[in-house]
Every structure is written in C-alpha cells, then in structure tokens.
DNA sequence: TCAGGTACTGACCGATCGGTCAGGCATGCT
DNA sequence: AGCATGCCTGACCGATCGGTCAGTACCTGA
C-alpha cells in the first residue's frame, strides 16, 4: 500500500471535512479518515500533530473570515449593526457551509477547547449585533434563532449555488430580526 | 456504596438528561451517568437494556407529542398548516427544551437508528408544513432555518419561564415564515 | 556512493467504551 | 427455616479510541 503522494496533506484535509460532515468530529476516528484516503492512521498523525490540530487547520479559513466580520462589526450600532451582521454572517455561512456543517452541534463542546476560545467571544458579539445590541429577551431569542438556524441550515443545501442560497438566507434573517412593535 | 433506593430508575433518567444536555449523547458514558447518581455502571445496565434504550425512554414523551402534532397537521394546508406547525412546534420545543437540547446536532446521526426512523419522517412533514407545502427553495430554506433555529435556541434559555419563551419564539417563527412578495 | 531528509508503515500502548456475568445482600412470602 | 425475588456490585470482556515509536523505502544533493 506504499504510494508516495505528497498531496496527501490536502487529501487528508478534504477527507476529514467529508467525514466530519457526515459523522461529526467526535464520531469520526482517525482510522476513518485514513481509510478514506487509503493510508495508515499513523500517516494522518505524521501530517497533523493530533486530531484537534487537524480540525484547527480545517477551520482556519472560516475563522479568519469570522474575525474579519467581527472587526467590521465594531463600527456599527442598532439596526446598522444588525444589517452588517446578517449580511456578513450569511455570506460566511454560505461560503463555508461545509466547514460549519461539520461542527453539527458540537460547537458548545469544541468551543471550550482553548484553541477555539476566541471564537466563543466573537460569536457572542455576533449575537449581540443580531439583537441590535438590545437586552430585551425577545431580541436575544430572535438573534439566537437566526444565528443557529442559518448555521444549521446552510450545511443542508450543499447542492444549490451560492447565488441562490445567499439571498434566501439573508431574506429570512432580516424578516426574523424585524423589531417587534 | 450499597444504597437500596428503588427510585434509582427515575434518578438515572434525570441524571442522563442532565449529562446528555452538557456533553451530548455520544460524549456521555454510562460511567458518567452512574457516577452522577452514585451507583455502578452495571446498575445503569440493570435498569436499561443498553445506552440506546435509555435515550429512547428519555425521549418517549417528547416523541409522543411530536406525533400528535403530526396527526393534527394532516388536516391543514398552506398558511393554515404553517400556523398550526409553528404553534405546535414552538409549544413542543418549549415544553421539552431540555430533551431537545440534549440531542445537540446529533439528530442526523441518531435519527438513522431504527428506533427513531419514524421521527425522521415526521420532521420532514413538519418542514413541509413550515414551508406551506411549497416547493420553492426559498420557502424550504426558511422552513429549515426556523425549525433548526428554534430547536437549537430553546435549550439555551432553560432559566426563563415557558410563558415568556413561547410567545417570543412564536413571533420570530411567524415573522421568518412570512411569504416573500 | 552515500548521508540525510521526506513520507510513510505496522506493531504497539494505555485508556475508555458499551456490555456481560456470577454472585451478594436485603426483603418478604410460604 | 427456607427460598425466591429485586436490586445492585466488582471483575471482566472484546473493541476501539487517540497517540507513540522504530524501522524502511525512496528521492535528492554533495
């Protein structure tokens, strides 16, 4: 089974993304990933220090975009913040839907790992922006429904093009976030 | 550590609910549950045939209510179906928020087990009702955002009373499901 | 020609998983 | 007194987990 392919690193990353999306992070073993690529489990751990490092590398691009959105958010308040947050997050969710989908509810668990501690804070600021920086429970509830709903949904529509998914998600987000009279 | 408590069954159920809600189904071991109650792992498996049976018994009341909603859904179409589905699902989510929360994204995995196969079909009919029985992608996207958003959100507000959470969730659901002009 | 790095393997490790099993200890019926 | 039953235990099982390690085949530059 010895096959000298230097692109293995990228192949492993892609295989991990596929497996994580189906069976989740905890539900996928290094064996599973190795089998999909056709190499040994030891080869996986040659390319990545450990399982968490694999996940970290997989999520890095998405996290970078999330942090850019966070930075952009700082300059806005109220309804403007809502619109920037909705547009930015929908765009992120659509572009990285595969990466987001693979965390399928393991978010709470994974975010507690030190490697993702910062993401935790960023998403709290995102919810705050979705809520228009309001403390009203109704606003915070709506914010969380939109955030979680989009995150869970985007991964279910892997087959339709970005240009169709993006406006549909944005429309439902903006409707849901409309202020209660 | 021998303590003859015949209420152990109920205690185990409650402990399992608590642990599942924090670390998820896969992330919680029978040891964890046993430790929380103060008995042995073998005692857990004396009361429940296996881990899945424990989960099944834990979810049974919520599933019964879900199936009742499904039956009620059959008599409605279009906007009426949307309203019945939204009201019914929000009520279910609020009442059983702890049970729903503990499945944290493990839904896709768990629903594939034969014991929950029926729930899969019911939730597809629910999404269909949310979408007003429309085939338009935008309608189906909105439906999934609402369903997933509510399911994920309700478990995050364990401390506020039903009477406050219910109308807030219903309001955001109805706003999000408003037909696009 | 050969040293050294890259990419990998199979064997192995301790821990933990869900689950089994024989037995023990109260309690209550006969 | 004897025996069944309900409830529970500690010891144990095979499987699988993430991770380590010594060794090896191959390529490259000196």
TrEMBL record, chains A, B:
Binding region for DNA: 29-48
Matching Gene3D superfamilies: Tetracycline Repressor, domain 2
Keyword Repeat attributed: no
Location of the HTH tetR-type domain: 6-66
One of the record's GO molecular function terms: DNA-binding transcription factor activity
InterPro entries per the UniProt record, alphabetical: Homeodomain-like_sf, HTH-type_TetR-like_transc_reg, HTH_TetR
Pfam families documented for this protein: TetR_N
Keyword terms of this UniProt record: DNA-binding
Keyword Metal-binding: no
PANTHER family, sorted: HTH-TYPE TRANSCRIPTIONAL REGULATOR PKSA, HTH-TYPE TRANSCRIPTIONAL REGULATOR RUTR
Protein name (Swiss-Prot/TrEMBL): Helix-turn-helix domain-containing protein
Organism: Micromonospora sicca
